[in-house]
Amino acid sequence: MDNPFVAQAELALLADNPRDALRIARMGLSLGGDEPALLEIAAESASQLDQDTDAAHYWQRLGELLPDHAQACNGLGIALQRLGAIDEAEAAWRRALALLPDDANLHTNLGLLLEERGALAEAEQHQRRAVALAPDSAPILTNLGDLLAHDDRPAEALASYRAALVHDAGFPTAHCNLGVLLADLGDAGAAEAAFRQALALRPDFPQCRVNLAQLLLRQGRFDEGWALHESRLALAWRRGEVPAPHTTPPQWQGESLRGRSIIVLPEQGHGDDIQFCRYVPWLKSLGAARVTLACRPGLTTLMQTLAGADQVIDADEGQAQLPQHDYWTVALSLPLRAGTTRDSIPATVPYLHPDPARQRRLQALLEADGVPGALRVGLVWRGNPGHANDRARSLPGLASLAPLWAVAGVRFFSLQKPSSASPATPPPPDQPLVDLAPQLGDFADTAALLAGLDLVISVDTAVAHLAGALGRPCWVLLPARKADWRWLEGRTDSPWYPDLRLFRQAGHDDWSAVVASVAKALEELRTT
Description:
Layout: H1 4-14, H2 18-32, H3 36-48, H4 52-65, H5 70-82, H6 86-99, H7 104-117, H8 120-133, H9 138-150, H10 154-167, H11 172-184, H12 188-201, H13 206-218, H14 222-229, H15 232-238, E1 261-265, H16 270-276, H17 280-285, E2 290-295, H18 300-303, E3 311-314, H19 315-321, E4 327-330, H20 334-337, H21 356-367, E5 375-380, H22 390-393, E6 410-414, E7 433-435, H23 443-450, E8 455-459, H24 462-469, E9 474-478, E10 493-494, E11 497-504, H25 512-527
Parallel strand pairs: 1-2, 1-4, 2-3, 5-6, 5-8, 6-7, 8-9, 9-11
Antiparallel strand pairs: 10-11
């Protein structure tokens, strides 16, 4: 006799109701054991609901029951990749390809995973095989375009995106990803048109809304940009980085805070927290009875110097205390709520302050064996290697800064913390470089050190934001492509930080001209 749960679960799934389909399939599995059809419905439903752990469980059970079921291997690979189990996902897709070697979707899925691993050459082999098997597939051509863009081959990537749109002009992802590439290449008008076309086809497209937002914010078009930028929260929610929608307490949407309490949660990187914590005093000025700032452990002590925060706590503690507040928000949403324009950016500095005791301790290090009257300059030449744009924004190495060593009367201090991708670098033999990174335990230590420097020269990192927030002079080196939206377009200054100066690449990957300009400016500063 046919299993009645299968028919009911299939109807629910066909009716675009994966929650009911999953419930029915689970009931059937609990009562009747491992029925392959129910396992497949349960796995597919869980996947649609972003319940990847359950999806992986059901696909795994189906694959054990039917070892030749290639779709089970494919579904398992997708779920495992979402869960971050990259090795296991790769193994699942290779098993699927062993069963169906001429399946274009399997090749493109494995290619996407290999691209994530950095194995671009093998990834390209699989993506091109997928295109050969499905030459009219807009999604597969778009995946190839993404890979080529990642490999810094823009002309080939453009051709692949445009081929995708020839086959399916209504495919929003191709329009969106084409827009990203056009923006990177400096064609802002065409990029905006591509983003808007994607959104016309798919209005609920969070990543594209964020891409358009960042393009507009880079141009200073804040009115529309801030509102669109809120779509990043949908992406962060899926990654578990912010509370889920409709949680208690609710997200603050601008309601009166008089007599109310609100918690500000961290978001994205340390630099973002440092830049946008400036809005906390504004929250307090709205009459909030209690403003709590939750931040990452490395920032907790530093943030206690910020005005307007009644309490500064560790972010993990903040999640535990969230129900005790009337509202929650994240720092990057505050410019929208404040109606920030280019002319109303709250840019009074300093709004963070060094600890006097730490400052006295670190001052001794700055003065040790120093040349009287020498300019004290801190250096940061690489950012977080895990940052999506680290390849563009970080210098190849300390040697890139060699022209600075010729400037007389300057003493350089390394603030560069080593990492697995950027190990500690010995200073050049002709340039004494004092390595202070071992003294930097948290951002309060860094703030105390920056207070004793005359200048910080940095790529786009949290140290640059910290220098700006402390009101310390800082020169930031920016890439020609993918410079962050917060630095706006074409400016050599920043409305966010009055004592900050921007040095921009003229050509992609050419840092020599930038460093030469910095060396000239440093020479001028030294002689004034």
